[in-house]
Amino acid sequence: MTSAVEDPVYWKPRSKGWFIAAVAAVFMALAVDVLVPDVQGVDTLPYQIFLGAAAVALLALWGASAFSASLRKKLYHQAQFIFAVGITLAVWDLLSTKSNILTLPFFPGPAQIIKVMVRERVLLLVSTAYSMKLFFVGLITGTTLGLVTGVLIGWYRQWNYWLFPVIKITGVIPAVAWIPIAIVLFPDSFTAGVFLIAIASWFSVAFMVSSGITSTPKAYYEVAKTLGAKENFLLFKIAVPNAVPNIFTGVSTATGFSFLTLIVSEMVGAKAGLGWYINWAKGWSAYDKVYASIIIMAVAFSIILAVLTLSRNYILRWQRGILK
Predict the structure, then answer these.
(1) What angle (nearest 5°) sits at the alpha carbon of residue 134, between those of residues 130 and 137?
(2) Which pTM was predicted?
(3) Where are the domains of the chain?
(4) In 43-173, where do the E strands start and end?
(5) What backbone phi and psi angles, to 5 degrees, belong to 323?
(6) Exposed / middle / buried, residue 174 (Cβ in 10 Å: 0-12, 13-18, 19+)
(7) C-beta of residue 240 within 8 angstroms of C-beta of residue 152
(8) Which SS3 state, helix, strand or coil, does residue 323 take?
(9) Cβ within 8 Å of residue 163, ≥6 positions away
(10) Closest of 172, 250, 168 to residue 213, by C-alpha
């Protein structure tokens, strides 16, 4: 109980046994691929190199953790998850590449997916770069509009009177429902995609910012007013800072909505991007390419959320120990 209070993030027991089991699970997945005969005739060398590199990296991190308590804490916290991933890869490999129980082309094994990532790395890299450009331009645009809208409806009654009904009506409409309008209004697929992603992110940010401002305790304003604070000070030094936790919640939610909208928008008229790549690969029944792009999207989304979480934890470090 005490350790959970001291470190609410890395709360798992610090067990060396679990980490050894995690490394062993990765080596087991490698052994399965090397020792069990291949039925589907897939080139497994890239997958074996990937597993070997992962196992070596884990051992190297374990060695480095002897000099860093924080690194050791993080590794032990993730050990059970790494163990589960290793077991999953081994079972997946057995059911697909090694036994053909999961048949091609609909259920490719991990070896085939890694092979596709290596063979199609240039096209996948270009598609990922295009998607990230579209995603960030749309998200930043929608977040900026959401911040402005949230401040207006949360602070000014007149703006709330006119804008809040609009938000309630348009906010519940899925962004993908605007695709026909976006195609007509904008000259190219990129601009239309930016519009759709901005719409997807705008509502959640605006709503959470306004909620954060309206939930600011009146006592804060009264104390500031007794010290001679003007309206601008009350808004930008009290109300908006109080809404910062809500802002991060809104941006995190907007990130998920925006990512979903990104993929759908790229499937309609786009000439590049991961959504376009999935649509193109599906047309050729190349499901190994579909799964490869899905994994890349999952990794990219996880990295973006991790950066948001780190930023939130740093900016809101004063909340540490106060909230669960």
Answers:
(1) 135
(2) 0.84
(3) 2-108, 121-319
(4) none
(5) -100, 160
(6) middle
(7) no
(8) strand
(9) 149, 152, 153
(10) 250
CA distance 114 to 149: 44
Instruction: Reply yes or no: is the peptide bond before residue 105 cis, omega within 30 of 0.
Output: yes
DSSP state of 239: I
Residues β-bridged to residue 323: 320
- Each residue's pLDDT, cut to its tens digit, for the chain (324 residues) gives 444 445 656 666 667 888 899 999 999 999 999 999 888 888 889 999 999 999 999 999 988 888 888 888 888 888 899 999 999 999 999 999 999 898 888 889 999 999 999 999 999 999 999 999 999 999 999 999 999 999 999 999 999 999 888 888 887 888 888 888 888 888 888 899 999 999 999 999 999 999 999 988 989 888 988 888 888 899 898 998 888 989 999 999 999 899 889 888 887 777 888 989 998 998 888 899 999 999 999 999 999 999 998 888 888 876 665 555
Locus of tokens 């070896």: 111
Is residue 153 within 8 Å of residue 165, measured between CB atoms? no
For 121-319, CATH number out of 1.10.3720.10, 3.40.430.10, 1.10.150.120, 1.10.1200.120 equals 1.10.3720.10
The DSSP code sequence of 5-54 is: HH-SSS-S---HHHHHHHHHHHHHHHHHHHHSPPSS----HHHHHHHHHH
User: In angstroms, what CA-CA distances link 254 with 30, 52, 69, 137, 208?
Assistant: 39, 37, 35, 13, 10
